[in-house]
Amino acid sequence: MSGTAPVSTLDGWRRAPFAAGGLSYDCYEKGEGPGVVLLPEVPGITPEVIGLGEHLVGEGFTVVMPSLFGVPGRPGTLGRTALVSVRVCVSAEFRAFATNARRPVADYLRALARDLAGRTPAAGVGVIGLCFTGGFALAAAVDDAVLAPVMSQPSVPVPLGAARRADAGVSQDELRRVVDRTRDEGLCVLALRFSGDPLSPEDRFTTLRARLGDAFKVIRLDSGPGNPDGFGRLAHSVLTLEVRETAGHRALRAREDVTAFLHERLGGRPQG
């Protein structure tokens, strides 16, 4: 039984800048098959995020990771996480404290999704947001190119006060467009969180369920006292830091469920 999360390096990943909407970031790409945009969690494209990317590549997807913040490939120490958190929270691109907000980075990510969809075999792409970027997956789903949005522990806006805890993380106009797509196109949104995670509050999920109805699918992992997997009370990173590659482990099962969701919506299977 491994006691640590799966990790990897950027060896073999192709790096190229992508610019849109007045923003430009280096993007790392690997794999073949339907496209998945994998967004980093604070403090950046850590070895654990790359580990998730490698898993998706192995599952038959073309994965693109935009380096929205931090230093790609560096481990997420407490000091580095704190420093990057301060920087992104005051950044105009992310508007970390704003409610009912259209965030400039969302336009960039929609353009990135369209670009990937235009050169991969499926009709559209998946977008996985993690932690700080969790809600950006929902914002990306405004665009028809996004067929499989996955919000893992969405944490923006920073949940200080009741209004921010209940905020969907997108503007009302963006949310209305996603609601329309669930009704007219069969779009489905997958979301994940730990039951006791204060950074990704249940109030946010309640808001999204009220608006999206049965098109909002939720995976909740028990992080309460005495939970069977030994998750700590502050467990947060469902698909990265908390994964253990041990049969039956709940976070590993969540990763499997996300992979199955992507296959269902996009196709793509590993060869052999």
Automatic annotation (TrEMBL):
<feature type="domain" description="Dienelactone hydrolase">
    <location>
        <begin position="32"/>
        <end position="150"/>
    </location>
</feature>
<dbReference type="Pfam" id="PF01738">
    <property type="entry name" value="DLH"/>
</dbReference>
<dbReference type="GO" id="GO:0016787">
    <property type="term" value="F:hydrolase activity"/>
</dbReference>
<protein>
    <submittedName>
        <fullName>Dienelactone hydrolase family protein</fullName>
    </submittedName>
</protein>
<keyword id="KW-0378">Hydrolase</keyword>
<dbReference type="InterPro" id="IPR002925">
    <property type="entry name" value="Dienelactn_hydro"/>
</dbReference>
<dbReference type="InterPro" id="IPR029058">
    <property type="entry name" value="AB_hydrolase_fold"/>
</dbReference>
